[in-house]
């Protein structure tokens, strides 16, 4: 059965206040269309996670969607620290979120454990760091310290994560949810497969035959997926390899707007609440910045060397 639907339908049917979400987008393919819809539907009290969090998480925190954040760090990249993130932690605006911090290796390993059905996973990179001294809402379950049964060295055990919903943006998927991506992967594959169900946003919907011709690009099977949304430029202002580049000018616009509560509110009113869907968002972008600015983001198309699975 086809799982294709609109983003409004996908979020309304599958995301509830209080859910634990994995949101893909490690460096690229951020599912901004889904994030905007979550904000528009005023879903709150979420626990969110991903390594390498950026302006997408900052926006959700500023919009009041987030209660808890299982984190490695959050930044606006070349534009510095997340302004909404800082206001939340320093001033409790719009609310003070609870945060549990891990390293950029530990968190993907926790998602990997969740995807593989393991209860925990051993790591060593947090050993000796102050991350062991600070515990928040996970309490004593943040980690356990043991002596390795093999060499006796101190070893940290961290728990598996199994989010209620995984939300990812990929280059292509078929109508049944078999999702394919290329470029930087980060923790996207593990986070999606650790989740109990997955919403797939994609640049294009392709046939099952197309997916089958290059199966190694498939990162999540259709059996995990509850919704497929064809959403061109769904990652803007982030980038999707092979389709469009990061919009650094728009990133600067967000950074400037989020410097103040008033500026951030105006940004949300214009770019999120004031938009019916992603199509309206892109049309507004073109009207405001011009078609040439929009066209300039597009990637030059080029084929990779074909792979043969013949035998």
Automatic annotation (TrEMBL):
Residues that span the membrane, as ranges: 20-39, 59-81, 102-121
Q: Name one GO molecular function term.
A: CoA-transferase activity
Lineage, top-rank taxon, reads Bacteria
Q: What are the entry keywords?
A: Membrane, Transferase, Transmembrane, Transmembrane helix
Spell out the InterPro entries in the cross-references.
CoA_trans_fam_I, NagB/RpiA_transferase-like
UniProt xrefs under SMART domains: CoA_trans (SM00882)
Query: Which PANTHER family does the entry mention?
Result: ACETATE COA-TRANSFERASE YDIF (PTHR43293), CHOLESTEROL RING-CLEAVING HYDROLASE IPDB SUBUNIT (PTHR43293:SF3)
Instruction: Tell me the protein's name.
Output: Glutaconate CoA-transferase subunit A
Which organism's genome codes for this protein? Desulfatibacillum alkenivorans DSM 16219
Q: What is the lineage of its organism?
A: Bacteria, Pseudomonadati, Thermodesulfobacteriota, Desulfobacteria, Desulfobacterales
């Amino acid at each position: 059965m086809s799982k294709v639907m609109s983003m409004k339908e996908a979020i309304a049917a599958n995301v509830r206040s209080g859910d634990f979400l994995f949101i893909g987008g490690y460096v690229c393919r951020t599912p901004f269309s889904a994030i905007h819809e979550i904000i528009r539907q005023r879903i709150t009290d979420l626990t969110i996670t991903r390594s390498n969090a950026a302006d997408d998480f900052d926006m959700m925190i500023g919009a009041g969607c987030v209660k808890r954040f299982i984190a490695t760090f959050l930044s606006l990249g070349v534009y510095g620290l997340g302004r909404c993130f800082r206001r939340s932690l320093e001033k409790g605006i719009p609310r003070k979120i609870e945060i549990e911090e891990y390293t950029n290796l530990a968190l993907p390993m926790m998602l990997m454990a969740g995807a593989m059905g393991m209860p925990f996973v051993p790591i060593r990179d947090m050993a000796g760091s102050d991350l062991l001294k600070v515990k928040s809402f996970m309490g004593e379950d943040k980690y356990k310290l043991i002596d390795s049964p093999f060499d006796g060295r101190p070893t940290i055990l961290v728990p598996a994560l199994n989010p209620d919903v995984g939300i990812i943006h990929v280059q292509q998927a078929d109508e049944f949810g078999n999702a394919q991506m290329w470029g930087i992967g980060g923790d996207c594959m593990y986070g999606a497969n650790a989740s109990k169900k997955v919403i797939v946003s994609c640049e294009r919907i392709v046939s099952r035959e197309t997916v089958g011709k290059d199966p190694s690009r498939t990162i999540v099977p259709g059996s995990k997926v509850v919704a497929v949304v064809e959403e061109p430029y769904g990652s803007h202002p982030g980038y999707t390899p092979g389709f469009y580049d990061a919009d650094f000018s728009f990133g600067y616009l967000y950074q400037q707007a989020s410097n103040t509560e008033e500026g951030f509110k105006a940004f949300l009113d214009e770019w999120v609440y004031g938009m019916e869907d992603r199509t309206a968002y892109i049309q507004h972008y073109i009207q405001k910045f011009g078609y040439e600015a929009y066209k300039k983001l597009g990637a030059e198309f080029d084929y990779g060397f074909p792979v043969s699975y013949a035998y």
